[in-house]
Amino acid sequence: MSSRETNTNVILIGAGIMSATLGSLLKELAPDWNVTVFEKLGKTGEESSNEWNNAGTGHAALCELNYTKEKSDGSIDLSKAININEQFQESRQFWSYLVNHGKLSNPQEFIRPLPHMSLVWGEDNVNFLKKRFDAMSQNPLFQGMEYSEDPEKLKEWIPLIMKDRDSHGPVAATKMDTGTDVNFGSLSRKMFEHLESNDVEVKYHHSVKDLKRTRDGNWEVKVFDAKNDKLEVRKADFVFVGGGGGSLHLLQKSGIPEGRGIGGFPVSGQFMVCNNPDVIKKHEAKVYGKAPVGAPPMSVPHLDTRYIGEEKSLLFGPFAGFSPKFLKTGSMLDLITSVKPNNVLTMLAAGAKEMPLTKYLIQQVLMSKEQRMEALREFIPNAKSEDWDLVVAGQRVQVIKDTEEGGKGTLQFGTEVVSGANGSIAALLGASPGASTAVHVMMDVLEKCFPQHMPEWEPKLKEMVPSYGQALVENPELIEEIHQTTSRALGLVEEKELVLS
Ligand SMILES: Cc1cc2nc3c(=O)[nH]c(=O)nc-3n(C[C@H](O)[C@H](O)[C@H](O)COP(=O)(O)OP(=O)(O)OC[C@H]3O[C@@H](n4cnc5c(N)ncnc54)[C@H](O)[C@@H]3O)c2cc1C
After folding, report:
1. Among residues 169, 263, 170, 246, which one has the least CA distance to residue 211?
2. Which residue from 82, 127, 464, 465 has the least number of CB within 10 angstroms?
3. Which domain holds residue 213?
4. In this predicted model, what pLDDT tens digit does every residue of 180-218 receive, in sequence order?
5. Ligand 1 residue neighbourhood (C-beta within 6 Å)
6. Which pTM value belongs to this model?
7. Residues 277, 207: one domain?
8. What is the three-class DSSP state of 69?
């Protein structure tokens, strides 16, 4: 690793939001390092980071009920919500730094203010939401949260959902006006445009086939150039495997012991998209409900206003699906070829343990359009089938590994960084909360892989992300300051006009 001080060669595999973020951080911290990106497709952000392949929620734990569990004593556990909120604040700060320094332009093309709401019905769920609201509204990170069970107030907030709703049983919602809709596709493209204009070589149509550690502790990366039909070999001091669903195979090829015993389980997503402009304009929020019993956390149903390009859209979902591919553009052999002698027992244990998930996925795959419309009608009671089309979203690969708490073959629902070989390689696996927390996750990569540089980088990291190294929840003044400065930089301050009719 001696050559890292000067002329450090960095290879980033994949041109999604994760590589975009790591590349952008490195360009600020170590501008002289040589950074090369290999992307197998012809463009940036075409897999999970693409705007049509994810839900575009700036996950700050303002509306996702699965981030706040009820403990056995009836109190609400806010720890996960606090973590995710603080991580999203780090993303906002880094994006603001890039905007303020002219490295990202027109922030409204990638982030917009949009209320985040949680909506529940039935007595038990309403009691849970009220308790959750009481706990969250006392926390400085969730200031401004509103709660209502009043049908008239709810009609004001969510007219489309409340119209023609059966009035039997209680309905309640919380609302946070500081929520955001994020176009991660646009953000990835903007970050890569900036990187390419700053000496970062992005090689499209280049698929990484293999990577081996050399005797001198560096890496030899074999890349297939599809346009010229030839194999190239590139050397690197540090490799980041940001291949999304493609990362697991590459981690296995790297041969690092930290990658052994890890498996992956693909879950695909589908959304219903509204094609009726009159319906689209009547809704202006991200409204998250409660996951059905037995459903995995990524299947929480939500009705989302989205801003994609100049257009306002309305999406409902996600519905889960099953495909053995690890990427939308992957191969039908991805799942089977990821099973290795070192993870087969873990995979089999997960198979036996996760029968309810398998059952749930089969039910989801077999759903007819009318059954999907019925799920949507829980949100929009008078939704018409002809107003909605089905679109296929991105592919997630959930990590399966042995853990102390869960035992052999435990399915993980978070984002995981696996690093090894003296910090010369890191791979990103898993999905949720994913893109929203990319800055925190990539700073974690820096800490794991470049500990020797951290003292020198710390002042710059604090300039880019003022809350770096601090627990925001313990510092209400800093929360307020960050909220103000990032809202201004990202153009989130102006009240949006509600287009309701
Ligand atoms: C249905 C769904 C909804 C989601 N909703 C949200 C949300 O609302 N909010 C949120 O924050 N996150 C959400 N996520 C998660 C988020 O989309 C991901 O965490 C994030 O986009 C992952 O970024 P990435 O850069 O790791 O991967 P990707 O964007 O998938 O990029 C990986 C890139 O690597 C390339 N690649 C793969 N293998 C190779 C190879 N061998 N050689 C060269 N290139 C390769 C691929 O072509 C691709 O371009 C959602 C995900 C899904 C699937």
Report:
1. 246
2. 127
3. 1-56+183-256+420-431
4. 999 999 999 999 999 999 999 999 999 999 999 999 899
5. 13-19, 38-41, 46-49, 53-57, 59, 184, 207-208, 242-244, 246, 250, 269, 318, 327, 393-394, 396, 428, 431-436
6. 0.94
7. no
8. strand
